[in-house]
């Protein structure tokens, strides 16, 4: 199969959507797929991949610049897809859908190439949480509707996303396949804790609790910060690693400072993808304190939860659909009530007191992820959907 993947963001390895896209590309290649990925050009991309076509876009720096930047990229993507489709004749388009553009869907329709769409969330719900205007939400909803209806098949990352597509956009159930996210089980592996602590210049005598991810509102890191005094009361040698960056970093650092806890927190900022397993392995427990808003409605298939377990670390996470299921199926952690700092603290304290439980949960979690959620297994499922879409067109 010859496959074109279209993606609307600059590629680096500092956020989950980029990791997902690059891992899917690499694992489809391993399965013998002739694949090209079209993404927004980036001056900061530190790696080379002959299967990535960088699509240029102008960066305006004045009023309405965001709209102009999106438009120029979508126009460039449209022209690139037309050119490369005529030149290379792909069997299928695969698009990570959003409400910011429909170039791939339009080219698919014009040239008669079937398209499979990947849906990781309901765009309008995310925009509401972020405080977007009603006019922006209406435009995004129109674009999202065009994209969804222009695909032969849709891949939803959770059952909640599938339900949302059916209820909001009236997509027939037969058109949607649920495929959860995964982890790179060759990169995210158990490592010697003392060795990686030394590598990171961390105190080998301290207990570390780790969060990895984009620092955005629905991650719920404030509940970990508010849980910290309760944890420190029982374990004064506990420290908290916040690995990642984002719009909430300053606010969460201020919260930790206001509570007199900043010395107990390490905010690392952006960390290269290949370095993330080192931070996870330096920790005793990993956390994912997701909030209810947005997450409870669509469920979650969060990369961090798979990567924590792949490293053999116990997971304490909010009992959000998808995450709670993962914990129960794997036996790799403890699910707690979302937005409940006391319960979060109690679960962390329970695991800090019991090294054997931490070890057992870690072993169970790693075994489950390797068997069910490697990126290789995800790519095989995606390829099956793509083959079905191509044959039925």
UniProtKB/TrEMBL annotation:
Q: Which UniProt keywords apply?
A: Glycosyltransferase, Membrane, Transferase, Transmembrane, Transmembrane helix
Give the GO molecular function terms: glycosyltransferase activity
Name the Enzyme Commission number(s) assigned to this protein.
2.4.1.-
Q: Which residues form the Glycosyl transferase family domain?
A: 193-367
Q: Which InterPro entries match?
A: Glyco_trans_1, Glyco_trans_4-like_N
Pfam families cross-referenced by the UniProt entry: Glyco_transf_4, Glycos_transf_1
Superkingdom assignment:
Archaea
Q: Which organism is it from?
A: Methanosarcina mazei (strain ATCC BAA-159 / DSM 3647 / Goe1 / Go1 / JCM 11833 / OCM 88)
Entry's transmembrane regions: 67-86
Tell me the ranges covered by the Glycosyltransferase subfamily 4-like N-terminal domain, including all copies: 15-186
At the highest ranks, the source species' classification is: Archaea, Methanobacteriati, Methanobacteriota, Stenosarchaea group, Methanomicrobia
Q: What is this protein called?
A: Glycosyltransferase
Q: Which Gene3D superfamilies match?
A: Glycogen Phosphorylase B
CDD domains registered for this protein in UniProt: GT4_PimA-like
């Amino acid at each position: 199969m010859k496959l074109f993947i279209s993606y609307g963001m600059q590629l680096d390895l500092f956020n989950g959507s980029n990791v997902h896209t690059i891992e899917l590309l690499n694992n489809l290649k391993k399965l013998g797929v002739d694949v090209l990925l079209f993404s927004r050009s980036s001056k900061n991309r530190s790696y080379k991949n002959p299967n990535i076509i960088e699509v240029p876009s102008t960066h305006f720096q004045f009023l309405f610049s965001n709209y102009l930047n999106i438009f120029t990229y979508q126009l460039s993507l449209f022209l690139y897809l037309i050119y490369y489709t005529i030149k290379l004749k792909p069997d299928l388009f695969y698009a990570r859908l959003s409400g910011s553009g429909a170039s791939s869907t339009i080219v698919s329709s014009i040239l008669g190439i079937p398209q499979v769409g990947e849906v990781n969330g309901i765009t309008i719900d995310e925009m509401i949480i972020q405080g977007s205007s009603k006019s922006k939400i209406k435009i995004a909803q129109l674009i999202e509707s065009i994209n969804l209806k222009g695909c032969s098949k849709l891949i939803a990352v959770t059952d909640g996303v599938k339900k949302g597509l059916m209820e909001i956009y009236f997509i027939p159930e037969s058109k949607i396949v649920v495929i959860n996210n995964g982890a790179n089980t060759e990169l995210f592996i158990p490592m010697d804790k003392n060795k990686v602590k030394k590598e990171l210049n961390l105190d080998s005598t301290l207990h570390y609790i780790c969060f990895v991810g984009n620092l955005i509102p629905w991650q719920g890191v404030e509940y970990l910060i508010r849980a910290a005094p309760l944890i420190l009361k029982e374990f004064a040698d506990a420290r908290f690693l916040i690995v990642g960056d984002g719009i909430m970093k300053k606010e969460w650092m201020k919260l930790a400072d206001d509570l007199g806890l900043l010395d107990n927190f390490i905010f690392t900022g952006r960390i290269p993808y290949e370095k993330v397993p080192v931070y996870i392995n330096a920790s005793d427990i990993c956390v994912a304190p997701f909030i209810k808003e947005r997450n409870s409605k669509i469920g979650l298939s969060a990369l961090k939860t798979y990567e924590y377990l792949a490293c053999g670390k116990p997971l304490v996470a909010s009992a959000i659909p998808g995450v709670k299921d993962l914990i129960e199926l794997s036996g790799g952690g403890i699910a707690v009530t979302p937005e409940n700092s006391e319960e979060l603290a109690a679960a962390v304290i329970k695991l800090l007191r019991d090294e054997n439980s931490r070890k057992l949960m870690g072993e169970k979690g790693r075994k489950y992820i390797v068997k069910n959620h490697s990126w290789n297994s995800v790519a095989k499922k995606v390829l099956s959907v793509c083959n079905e879409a191509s044959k039925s067109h």
